[in-house]
Design brief:
90 residues, mainly alpha, 4 helices, elongated
Length: 90
């Protein structure tokens, strides 16, 4: 081995992580109400098996409406299952 390189297998310590900027970290954590991620609002996943033809129709419909499949299906479910509906009614 040369003097410039340590022997193989020997770890070289990397310096201590530099201190973070507390104002920057607070700003990132604070966020913005408009920048909520979908995962912040929708926390339950629903899996549904559909035929390839049905999936294609759903995707085309979402595309022609200028939305995503997820947003289209959420709106559909909101219309069919509104929150104001009584839990005991059919």
């Amino acid at each position: 081995m040369t003097a410039d390189h340590p022997p193989r297998g020997k770890r070289i310590a990397i310096g201590v992580r530099p201190p973070a900027n507390p104002q920057a970290e607070a700003w990132v954590r604070q966020g913005d109400g408009e920048t909520l991620q979908k995962g912040d609002l929708f926390t339950a996943r629903l899996t549904l098996d559909v035929t390839p033809a049905m999936r294609a129709r759903i995707k085309v419909s979402a595309f022609t409406q200028g939305t995503t499949v997820a947003e289209l299906l959420r709106a559909l479910m909101d219309r069919e299952f509104p929150e104001s509906r009584s839990e005991t009614s059919p």
